[in-house]
Amino acid sequence: MSLALSGIGVSRGVAIGKAHIILRGSIEVLESAIPVHLIEDEIARFLKAVDSARMQLEATQERIPASTGVDIAAFIETHLLMLDDATLVATPVDLIREHHCNAEWALKLQRDAVVSVFEQMDDAYLRTRRDDIDHVINRIQRILLDSSQGEEQGENIVPENTIVLAYDLTPAETVMFEHQGIRAFATECGGPLSHTAILARSMQIPAMVGTHGLQRYIRDGETIILDGLQGVLIAGADEQTLDYYRERQEQEFQRQIELAKFADTPAVTSDGTPVRLMANIELPEDIDAVSRTSANGVGLYRTEFLFMNRPEPPDEEEQYDCYVSVIEALKGKPLTIRTLDMGADKQADGISGSSNPALGLRAIRLCLKNRAQFRPQLRAILRASAHGPVRLMIPMLSNTRELHQVLSLINDTKIALQREALAFAPDVQIGGMIEVPAAALTAADFASHLDFLSIGTNDLIQYTLAIDRVDDEVNYLFDPLHPAVLRLIKMTIDAGKAAGIPVAMCGEMAGDPRYTRLLLGMGLNEFSMHHTALPEVKSVIHSSSIEALVPLVQELLNNTRTGRIPERVDSLNQNTL
Questions:
Q1: In the annotation, is 322 catalytic?
Q2: Which of 20, 79, 135, 195 does the annotation list as catalytic?
Q3: Given pLDDT bands bounded at 50, 70 and 90, which one contains residue 33?
Q4: Choosing from 101, 322, 367, 506, which is the catalytic residue?
Q5: How far apart are CA 449 and CA 122, in angstroms?
Q6: pTM of the complete model
Q7: The CATH number, out of the four listed (3.50.50.60, 3.40.50.300, 1.10.274.10, 1.10.10.10), of the domain defined by the range 36-146
Q8: 542 an active-site residue?
Q9: Hey, what CATH class is 3-23+159-259 in?
């Protein structure tokens, strides 16, 4: 009798193999009092554990083959940098001294405080960065609790051709899996924006997350099937089911061969319409991967990581140097820099948090309130524009009053730079993100004052449908094909066309090939996505005719009341155009 478990597919592909279950129990931390005369010894024990954690990661880093992409290896470097962060190291030392408690308890107290900050962030992508905090802290905790002796060997010795099942996986483990010949992996926790999920897509390993009940229902060593596209894991499959998925594997293999042909070709539809394909990045190290996929440039550069995990925000010079390094690496391709998109819960801001961060002081609202921090970023972006094509993008606009305040600040910054004889591009393009329903409904007003618009579907869908896709209880309601979402997208695209300015999409919907034809038929001609999605989206573009799509999509949009939108979109994708 077969058993199927559902989860979130985060990296497509089909794998068939024996299950290898990584058993790692939850960490139980108890508080104990430390005598005054032993406090310094306890601090020394904690710092030794931090050093041991660092040595483990460095050992993993040394074992990564030189052929591994820089963007993939950067995930381990991120964890190493976190071990040098005062937030995770110096503060627990202070807590040990203050509370006379054991190192494990002090680390737990600090972990809870830091994670609470991340959990209040509205941006789903940033909120999942709490996973990295847990990965680093759990590594230290296991050393302190003496439960990780030999862990580094244990977590990195996995039989070849197996499908790894675990409650959670660290980026270090995930990176090493690629070079040990595993076929796929599934975890009980995690989301589509976690570093583990991003790594799986980068390494093209079939993967699922949020697959509840793995260790309860699956036996170690039994043959299982993992479908990373549909987010399904099957145990006890009969021969007919196995044959079906073997055929799917062969189809996937042939698909990869076909996709490789598009690597260096321009994105042009079958009837000759050029489409701009851009990449989303967050670290300068991502540029190498972007270059390999022949993206037209960067449609979204997240700047939040410059501001996170530090007591003070970066100054103008640090930001300027970082932006220039990315511009130079792009070698003439445009860079779209999004200004800081974080909430008032960020500790370095010195602003009290909000009881409802999703609707509170965040993104451009926070920047306008905290102009002492916003001005250095504007100056850094404008100065960097002297080194290559730069576009400045404003997040979470909800009314034109905010927009005029930002444009006034940008103009004042230009005047100040001219006065100081500092170079910048006077015609740098200014754009706005449409990710609030109010902004989509009044997109024509924004379009009349901006050089471009970019639709952020992740937030637009969440705000429109009043759901949090990171929340397991309601993420099933996250629906890019909801009629309200489609109408807001179409309204924004039409507003851009009427104003004669380009409209892009930088949310995950842009990188999902299931929606490429739908968006092309709605009039979208600039997509920005994770670099691994570019080849497949490009292949769909090559096989699509705008002339044929427009009337079909218009008919679909005119008949959204039927409730059959997903089926109609599937039909759209299956037709030869």
A1: no
A2: 195
A3: very high
A4: 506
A5: 27
A6: 0.74
A7: 1.10.274.10
A8: no
A9: alpha beta
